[in-house]
Amino acid sequence: MIRKKEAKKIVFQSEKEMPMMPMSLGSMLYNKTGAWRNIRPVVDLENCIQCGICWKFCPDMSIFIENEFPYVNYDYCKGCGICAEECPAKCIAMVEEEK
Amino acid sequence: MKKVIMGNHALSYGAMLARSQVIAAYPITPQTQVVELLSEMCADKTLDAKFIKVESEHSAMAACIGASVAGARTFTATSSQGLALMHEMLHWASGGRLPVVMGDINRSMGPGWSIWTDQNDSLSERDTGWMQYYCASNQEVLDTVIQAFKVSERLAIPSMVILDAFALSHTYEVVDIPDQAKVDAYLPPFRPQVRLTPDDPHAFGGLTSPEHYFELRYKLQKDMEKAPALIEETGREYEKMFGRYLGLVEDYLCEDADIILVTSGTAGYTARVAVDEMRKGGIKAGNLRIKVFRPFPFEHVRRIVKNAKKVAVVDRNISYGHHGMFFQEVKSALYGQDKSPPVFGFIAGLGGRDITPSTFKEIVDITLSKDKPEEEIIWIGVKR
Amino acid sequence: MKKPRTMKLSLPEEELVGSGNLACQGCGATLAMRYVLKALGQRTVLCIPACCWSVIDGPFPHSCLDVPVYHCAFETAASTASGVKAGLEMVGDTETTVVAWAGDGGTFDIGIQALSGAAERNDDIIYVCYDNEAYMNTGIQRSSATPFGAWTTTTPVKHFKNRPKKDIDAIMAAHRIPYIATASIAYAEDVYKKAKKAKDIQGTRFLHIYAPCPTGWKSRPEDSIRLARMVVQNSIFPLYEIENGEKYTLSIKVKDKKPIHDYLKLQGRFRHLTEDQIKFMQEEVDKNWARLLRKVESSD
Questions:
Q1: Domain boundary at B223, B242, B261, which?
Q2: Interface contact flag, B207 C75, Cβ < 8 Å
Q3: Is the Cβ pair C64, A26 closer than 8 Å?
Q4: How far C64 CA sits from the closest chain B CA (Å)?
Q5: How confident is the model over B115-143, as pLDDT tens digits?
Q6: Contact A57/C58, CB-based, under 8 Å?
Q7: N or C: lower Cβ tally within 10 Å for chain B?
Q8: A44: domain CATH number?
């Protein structure tokens, strides 16, 4: 059973709301690690060969598959560049973030 | 059923009757008989439990913690060096709010190697957030283990049941071993609210910032403060079913006493013999034996000693650079009270040096001869 | 517009590790967890001692993992896992897989006693060591898994690590446990396969996964997979399995063993090495490889 995950930071107003022992009550989705990036991957879907390698090697689970193609979840992508390095079709470019 | 058993085996029977489910232990003199009997009980299925033969005491407590958070009732036993080795993990059990119950045989810390009794090993752990029960008879040991499980599981705080090396661990006494069915009625199965299960996944014990740690530890202290009342309540329930009441302290002739000895462990029983002799000789002595040291029984101590003329605390331990630890805590409990007699602090019996009724006679003589203690620490029996 | 064909992923799509975690960019340890959990599934309990994953998981009261986790003391990954397994069985759960998930520090060094104890008892746990070759969580100090020649904060360039990497797989083999395997995140399907195989074996199973650390190795984040591939192809970290401490099977028959030079060049932690030192390291790699091949041959 996977609990439905909310992207919300949990805040306690008093000790009465806290569990007795340190114990997680929510996911890390509130933490938008996309803010860490300086460069972002851009996938050229025209030349994408749908091998799935970018999805496979993403350490942040920030590439998801939709309609048989890979898409980057820019909320969480940290810009590590592994997808661009490993893409056999060389169709992912790492592009500077505009600030 | 009445049986003549040694103190160590009283621990084993207590753990068995409490239906411990996971035992992880490492042998150390003079605890070995505890785990040997438990191994036999597991092997012949008198006790349905898994016995993990760990390779050190540190791993013993780690395994107990793992089993406890998985939802099983856990027990272990150790002594001295082994308890010291577990120190890090004691914090983990209490901070993790896991109701592990552990037997500790009070044995001196080396070097030099000493297998005989004093209390430094357990008292060095007084700050770890574990409840501490000091026993003076094998019956008390067995009864305390069963009650300790009940209190620990209600409060989610671990506890240790402590007995003197050899003086109690290896002494054979008649023990009334309760009926399993009755113990089952007194102590229901362990059913924690949260545990490790994929059906309700949580991450326990993760990185906790200054924003949260303080409150979590506040909660631990607040729950520990509920313990004295809970120990008395569960003690009365036990008395109804089994006819014996433990409570937090034993008050022996303190009510009209001029001088009250404060003791713990088997020395506390010896003190009663000494008190009887002194009463015959015209000295109105009394003995306050502290059974539960953590949480400290403030109210009981204050109430019982307040009308005495003098108090003599006898420590079989010492916090180097300060004083005996029962003395420190009794004295601080009396600070600022309306009626607070002078408190004399004695150290006796370290490393298994015998404590006899004449030890107490000497202590009382010294106490009676002075209005106030002249030295911080009064050593009894040291060859100077 | 190209007509899209169906995409066939080489691993199950479901993720048990979530985004928003605190791993560095290009972290190998996160991929190791991702692949192993895909194989073991949601009915898994992790015991994680002090290591990078104590932090990657996220702070209280949050966690990026969809499985139950017990964060335990540094040296207790194996002993905690042994206790958890015993406890779960006693409360009637014999199905959940119990995993000790530790870094190289908690496995090779401070945790080795507990690991050896659990292995000797053949406790029914899977022990996974993700190896980033130093105490990375505390700031890149050397461990006994740090390879010869590496810079770390406690083996500065003038006193670089001059002892070989501890052969933890040989140590585990000596315990005669049912299954040991080495794996590398560049070979994701192999990690998955070995974790799946381990899941169905009873007793102590040990997985040693190579996990590059750009932060500690001073390598580019985008090179993490490349490094994890090179290290197999130059046989510094060969992929193999050991069954019952005796039967050695190579997972990949490396045809043309590459020289180690290119692999070292991509990492700042090796930048100070002289040609002579690299030559020495190459000889050691060759010797270790030859020794492994002998073990494989004598297993047949």
A1: B242
A2: no
A3: no
A4: 9
A5: 999 999 999 999 999 999 999 999 999 99
A6: no
A7: C
A8: 3.30.70.20
The verdict on B142 and B78 lying in the same domain is yes
Cβ C83–B55 below 8 Å, yes or no?
no
Q: By the CB < 8 Å criterion, does C95 face chain A?
A: no
Residue C2 has pLDDT above 90, yes or no: no
User: Measured between CB atoms, does C60 come within 8 Å of chain A?
Assistant: yes
The yes-or-no verdict on residue A1 having pLDDT over 50 is no
* B215 part of contact set with chain A, CB < 8 Å: yes
Cβ separation C84–B201 shorter than 8 A:
no
Number of separate domains in chain B = 2
The shortest C-alpha distance from A89 to chain B (Å) reads: 40
Q: Which of C207, C189, C51 has its CA nearest to residue C126?
A: C207
A23/B194 Cβ within 8 A: yes
CA–CA separation, B63 and B22 (whole Å): 9
The answer to the question of residue B384 being in a domain is no
Same-domain status, B236 and B264: no
A14 → chain B, closest CA residue: B215
Tell me which of B242, B272, B306 is where a domain ends: B242
Interface test with A, best of B202, B209, B212 (most A CBs within 10 A): B202
Q: Do C61 and A60 count as a contact with CB atoms less than 8 A apart?
A: no
Strand ranges for chain A from DSSP E: 39-43, 63-66, 69-72, 92-96
Tell me if A39 is assigned to some domain. yes
Residue A15 within a domain: no
State the pLDDT at residue C4: 62
CATH (domain of C203): 3.40.50.970
B74/C84 Cβ within 8 A? no
Residue B183 · residue B18 · CB < 8 Å: yes
**Distance, CA of B71 to CA of B154 (rounded, Å):** 14
- B198: which chain A residues are within 8 Å (Cβ-Cβ)? 1
**Average predicted confidence (pLDDT) for chain B:** 97
All residue ranges of chain B with pLDDT < 50 are: none
Q: Which chains are adjacent to chain C, needing at least 3 Cβ pairs under 8 Å? A: A, B
Per DSSP, C155 falls in state B
E strand segments, chain B: 2-6, 22-24, 50-52, 74-79, 101-106, 131-134, 159-164, 172-176, 203-204, 249-252, 259-263, 285-290, 292-294, 310-315, 343-347, 378-379
CA of A4 to nearest chain B CA: how many angstroms apart?
12
* B254 and B229 belong to one structural domain: no
- The answer to whether B37 touches B9, Cβ cutoff 8 Å, is yes
Query: Rounded to whole angstroms, how far apart are CA atoms B298 and B330?
Result: 8
Do residues B121 and B270 both lie within one domain? no
Are B47 and B167 members of one domain?
Answer: yes
- Does residue A82 lie in a domain region? yes
- Give the nearest partner residue to B204 out of A14, A18, A22, using CB atoms: A22
User: Which pLDDT value is given to residue A6?
Assistant: 78
What does the pLDDT look like over A60-95, one tens digit per residue?
999 999 999 999 999 999 999 999 999 999 999 999
Q: Is the pLDDT of residue A3 over 60?
A: no
Residue B185 and residue B100 share a domain: yes
Q: Return d(Cα B62, Cα C78) in angstroms, integer.
A: 9
Residue A98 has pLDDT above 90, yes or no: no
Cα separation, C285 vs C236, whole angstroms: 6
Check if the interface score ipTM surpasses 0.85: yes
Domain containing B216 equals 2-242
Which contiguous run of DSSP H or E holds residue B61? helix B57-69
Mean of pLDDT values over A8-28 = 96
Higher-pLDDT residue of A98, B75: B75
> Is B191 in the same domain as B317?
no
pLDDT tens-digit readout, C42-90: 999 999 999 999 999 999 999 999 999 999 999 999 999 999 999 999 9
B334, B301, B315: which is closest to B377 by C-alpha? B315
- Answer yes or no: do B176 and B203 share one domain: yes
Residue A58 belongs to some domain of the structure: yes
Tokens standing for C232? 């197999």
